[in-house]
């Protein structure tokens, strides 16, 4: 152990607590806002302790139609976000797993072309080619559909490269053993490779779910009707230009938009940190 | 790197890559090619016909004072976000690496903003700083500071910088902490025995060993500030007041989707592509070198 002078032992804790306050304060104030009424928030001296309207605010947000969202309740946006995030996460995992498997475990014509095509997509985030991607999606009739929300964001390579990296570490003996047992490539995929990859899959799920859930620019463009938009995008429509912003509902929406991705990160913390640090470096 | 032992067959692997290839072709290569194509075309006012104009759109973009202004805003924004997201994260990671008690609590709490969408981070900070409503805004007013980011461009820029950096802090923290924990304790002990004090030890042993992480995070944070902060800007300021917070990615969106200037917006897209390709190439070159040594 590092030697340390005892009288300074509290300093790291002090700095870390300051860090926690910095991280926690905006979230806490938002939570407090979601338990008050809008007049209480607008009064100019908002309480720093939660008020008594927690249940009714969240119920109002989830179930009642919002005029700012053309009469759609926030519950619907929550569902859209969930469908989009899950489709992106699971879709990306499936197509990446399969293509990485093909590239690593087979020699087939065009293999390197496939690899480089997939690799190139790392270079350009969707934000950069946003207008033409929107046009392609519109031409395919995917505006205001779950397919339009999710599929264009599935086309990226990070997951493929991660799986490729991992598959290359799988010992050759495993393939030979599987062959001796008479197992074909699909059997090997299902019974050997899939269980071996469970940690990677879990880590990737967290990262991709958060990625999908937090999207903003893409769902903003690809949805025109309020009933198809996501929670993260819908919150902006609630911030009206005039002074009629229903702040208690905006704050409830903000909390609702934070809880699912935060829960996924917290519940799968161990895999998430491992997956994040391993995949990016 | 290649495998020695592989499966036979040609059709099966092609079927397995087909889904990813299809999505990539339709939603990646096609739009990217269109962006390049449209960047060389001019459209008439009614969008009825287009004409090849070579590099005119690029010349127009670089001659446009609004674009140069946006370039300046982006530079200030991305440098500030990167510094503000990295320095506190490094300090917090060094501290978290040092404590034993409550280490897991600190780590868990500090990683939370990772899960928050940039747009939601923007709304959280907006709520603190909204004039007349926000707790911090009222405090500033009470202190005699005339805080109104809706009218004051510098204040608006400051607000989106803080919100964007806050969101990225946890990502940097996790990587710095992982980097610190990978440093062999024996090295630090050796430095200790040589009589190096805490700060000296940090500067001469820890910081050099942490430089790969720092460089990696620097590139990631710049890319983040350039491309992923759209939500913060759109939700909090809408690029205003009077374009004070209009970063490049916002301008591409605004000119293309609101202003319907397809040629100009595509030219801007292509410029951004070049920037991001350069950043990624730097990162890969560097990572590759690290793998070799």
TrEMBL record, chain A:
CDD domains named among the record's database cross-references: TM_PBP2 (cd06261)
Compartments it resides in: Cell inner membrane; Cell membrane
Residue span(s) of domain ABC transmembrane type-1: 78-268
InterPro entries: MetI-like (IPR000515), MetI-like_sf (IPR035906)
Alphabetically ordered keywords of this record: Cell inner membrane, Cell membrane, Membrane, Transmembrane, Transmembrane helix, Transport
Annotated PROSITE patterns: ABC_TM1
SUPFAM superfamilies: MetI-like
Transmembrane segments: 7-29, 82-106, 113-134, 146-167, 188-210, 247-272
Source organism, top-level taxon: Bacteria
Keyword Membrane found: yes
Similarity comment: Belongs to the binding-protein-dependent transport system permease family.
Function: Part of the ABC transporter complex UgpBAEC involved in sn-glycerol-3-phosphate (G3P) import. Probably responsible for the translocation of the substrate across the membrane.
Subunit architecture: The complex is composed of two ATP-binding proteins (UgpC), two transmembrane proteins (UgpA and UgpE) and a solute-binding protein (UgpB).
Protein name (Swiss-Prot/TrEMBL): sn-glycerol-3-phosphate transport system permease protein UgpE
Provenance organism: Aliidongia dinghuensis
Upper taxonomic lineage: Bacteria, Pseudomonadati, Pseudomonadota, Alphaproteobacteria, Rhodospirillales
Gene name as annotated: ugpE
UniProtKB/TrEMBL annotation, chain B:
Subcellular location: Cell inner membrane; Cell membrane
GO biological process entries: transmembrane transport
Cellular component GO terms, alphabetical: plasma membrane
Spans traversing the lipid bilayer: 12-30, 66-94, 115-137, 157-183, 204-227, 267-287
Keyword vocabulary terms for this entry: Cell inner membrane, Cell membrane, Membrane, Transmembrane, Transmembrane helix, Transport
Superkingdom in the source lineage: Bacteria
Domain ABC transmembrane type-1, chain residue ranges per copy: 71-283
Assembly information from the UniProt record: The complex is composed of two ATP-binding proteins (UgpC), two transmembrane proteins (UgpA and UgpE) and a solute-binding protein (UgpB).
Family listed: Belongs to the binding-protein-dependent transport system permease family.
PANTHER family from the UniProt entry: BLL4140 PROTEIN, SN-GLYCEROL-3-PHOSPHATE TRANSPORT SYSTEM PERMEASE PROTEIN UGPA
Stated name of the protein: sn-glycerol-3-phosphate transport system permease protein UgpA
Source organism (scientific name): Aliidongia dinghuensis
């Amino acid at each position: 152990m590092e030697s340390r002078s005892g009288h300074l032992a509290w300093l790291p804790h002090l700095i870390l607590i300051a860090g926690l306050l910095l991280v926690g304060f905006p979230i806490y104030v938002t939570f407090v806002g979601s338990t008050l009424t809008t007049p209480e928030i607008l009064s100019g001296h908002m309480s720093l302790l939660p008020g008594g309207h927690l249940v009714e605010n969240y119920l109002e947000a989830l179930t009642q139609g919002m005029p700012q969202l053309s009469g759609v309740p926030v519950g619907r946006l929550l569902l859209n976000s969930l469908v989009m995030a899950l489709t992106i996460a699971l879709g990306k995992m499936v197509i990446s797993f399969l293509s990485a498997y093909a590239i690593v475990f087979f020699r087939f014509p065009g293999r390197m072309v496939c690899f480089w095509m997939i690799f190139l997509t790392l270079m350009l985030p969707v934000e950069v080619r946003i207008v033409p991607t929107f046009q392609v999606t519109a031409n395919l009739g995917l505006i205001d559909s779950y397919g339009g929300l999710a599929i264009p964001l599935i086309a990226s390579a990070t997951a493929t490269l991660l799986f490729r990296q991992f598959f290359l570490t799988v010992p050759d003996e495993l393939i030979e053993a599987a062959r001796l047992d008479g197992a074909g490539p699909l059997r090997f995929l299902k019974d050997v490779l899939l269980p071996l990859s469970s940690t990677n899959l879990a880590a990737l799920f967290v990262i991709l779910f958060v990625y999908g859930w937090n999207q903003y620019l893409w769902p903003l463009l690809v949805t025109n009707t309020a009933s198809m938009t996501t929670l993260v995008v819908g919150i902006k429509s609630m911030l009206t230009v005039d002074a009629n912003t229903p702040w208690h509902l905006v704050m409830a929406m903000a909390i609702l938009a934070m809880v699912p991705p935060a829960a996924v990160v917290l519940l799968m913390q161990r895999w998430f940190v491992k997956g994040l640090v391993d995949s990016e470096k | 790197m290649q495998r020695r032992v592989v499966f036979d067959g040609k059709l099966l692997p092609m079927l397995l890559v087909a889904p990813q290839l299809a999505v990539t072709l339709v939603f990646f290569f096609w739009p990217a090619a269109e962006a390049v194509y449209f960047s060389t075309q001019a459209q008439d006012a009614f969008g009825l016909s287009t004409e090849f104009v070579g590099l005119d759109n690029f010349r127009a973009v670089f001659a446009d004072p609004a674009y140069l202004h946006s370039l300046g805003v982006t530079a200030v924004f991305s440098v500030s976000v990167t510094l503000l997201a990295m320095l506190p994260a490094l300090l917090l990671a060094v501290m978290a690496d040092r404590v034993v008690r409550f280490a897991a609590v600190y780590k868990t709490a500090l990683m939370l903003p990772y899960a928050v969408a940039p747009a939601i981070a923007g709304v959280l900070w907006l709520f603190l700083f909204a004039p007349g409503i926000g707790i911090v805004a009222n405090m500033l007013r009470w202190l005699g500071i005339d805080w109104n980011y809706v009218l004051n461009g510098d204040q608006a820029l400051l607000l989106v910088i803080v919100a964007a950096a806050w969101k990225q802090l946890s990502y940097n923290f996790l990587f710095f902490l992982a980097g610190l924990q990978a440093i062999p304790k024996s090295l630090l002990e050796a430095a200790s025995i040589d009589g190096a004090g805490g700060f000296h030890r940090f500067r001469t042993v820890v910081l050099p060993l942490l430089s790969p992480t720092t460089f990696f995070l620097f590139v990631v944070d710049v890319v983040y500030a350039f491309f992923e902060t759209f939500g913060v800007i759109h939700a909090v300021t809408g690029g205003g007041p009077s374009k004070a917070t209009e970063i490049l990615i916002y301008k591409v969106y605004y000119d293309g989707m609101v202003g319907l200037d397809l040629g100009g917006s595509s030219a801007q897209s292509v410029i951004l592509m070049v920037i991001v390709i350069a950043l990624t190439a730097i990162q890969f070159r560097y990572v590759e070198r690290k793998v070799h040594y």
